[in-house]
Backbone:
């Protein structure tokens, strides 16, 4: 409201003869432009508010990548990158129902292929551009059947194919290509362990330090 009053107060001075028909028309145009600009600013501000903030740090407790703390960085993913991604609703619900991953928890997976790559699954064999990339299992450790897809397809814009080295990883070998719209960013290890039971190690800016709570020296580099 103050913006409109200020425009009205300054309008006659800025436009000169507001009392004349020409001045009045210009004054009305000035007010209309001011109100339009204010509405545009308000809509942009609302859009910013409704954009949910992305997580900056993620703690991984799964066995498909090293356990520990990861920093999420905004970057266009490339094959080989470790990324954090929100699974599609149907996949997320299935993971939660099986008690693999709680709802709202992102996946940490490596990008195996992007747009233009041809991915296939025949039986248990997963291939990318004609080269074997992974093996899919028929069931999990509890004997429950795992999803399976069949055939070949060329990845389109907005699709990514995710595979981890861990043989038990739940990734595109079972779900197929995933939409890149759920991408949160590149996952950079900060404090992780390289093997079960090994100490956590800081991995930042090329410095590698270990943290082991069972020893007197908690941190050593």
Residues:
């Amino acid at each position: 409201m103050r913006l409109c009053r200020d425009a009205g107060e300054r309008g006659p001075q800025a436009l000169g003869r507001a009392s004349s028909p020409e001045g009045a028309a210009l004054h009305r145009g000035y007010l209309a432009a001011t109100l339009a600009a204010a509405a545009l600013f308000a809509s942009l501000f609302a859009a910013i508010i409704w954009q949910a903030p992305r997580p900056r740090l993620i703690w991984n407790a799964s066995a498909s990548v090293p356990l520990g703390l990861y920093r999420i960085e905004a970057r266009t993913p490339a094959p080989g990158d470790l990324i954090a991604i929100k699974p599609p609703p149907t996949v997320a619900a299935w993971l939660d129902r099986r008690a693999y991953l709680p709802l709202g928890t992102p996946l940490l997976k490596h990008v195996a292929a992007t747009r233009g790559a041809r991915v296939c699954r025949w039986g248990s064999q997963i291939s990318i551009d004609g080269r074997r990339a992974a093996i899919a299992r028929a069931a999990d450790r509890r004997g429950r059947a795992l999803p399976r897809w069949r055939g070949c397809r060329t990845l389109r814009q907005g699709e990514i194919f995710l595979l981890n080295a861990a043989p038990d990883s739940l990734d595109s070998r079972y779900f197929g290509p995933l939409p890149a719209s759920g991408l949160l960013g590149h996952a950079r290890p900060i404090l992780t362990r390289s093997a079960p039971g090994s100490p956590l190690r800081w991995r930042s800016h090329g410095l590698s330090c270990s943290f082991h709570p069972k020893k007197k020296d908690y941190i050593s580099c």
